[in-house]
């Protein structure tokens, strides 16, 4: 059952991106199930992420930009395709001088409008 195959991670909580790393096969099976296809109003068998690359190496562009502008590199923490650790490794690999190291950003809780 594709519904059960999605529940691969131990302690599955139905949270955003709550699946074991590498469980894309289960995600693909779940997304291909007739009930999910119908609920999402997509055509069965629709391919994902089909695009043409317009550039293969953007490192020279980043080098040019960093020398002319202040750069903020932001990466959210709920991206299942490019988690923040991947972004951090990529940015460190650019060998630029880090002026402000990674730090946690927190939004102030909105207690005024809480129910």
From TrEMBL:
<dbReference type="GO" id="GO:0006508">
    <property type="term" value="P:proteolysis"/>
</dbReference>
<comment type="similarity">
    <text>Belongs to the peptidase S10 family.</text>
</comment>
<dbReference type="Pfam" id="PF00450">
    <property type="entry name" value="Peptidase_S10"/>
</dbReference>
<dbReference type="InterPro" id="IPR001563">
    <property type="entry name" value="Peptidase_S10"/>
</dbReference>
<protein>
    <submittedName>
        <fullName>Uncharacterized protein</fullName>
    </submittedName>
</protein>
<dbReference type="GO" id="GO:0004185">
    <property type="term" value="F:serine-type carboxypeptidase activity"/>
</dbReference>
<dbReference type="InterPro" id="IPR029058">
    <property type="entry name" value="AB_hydrolase_fold"/>
</dbReference>
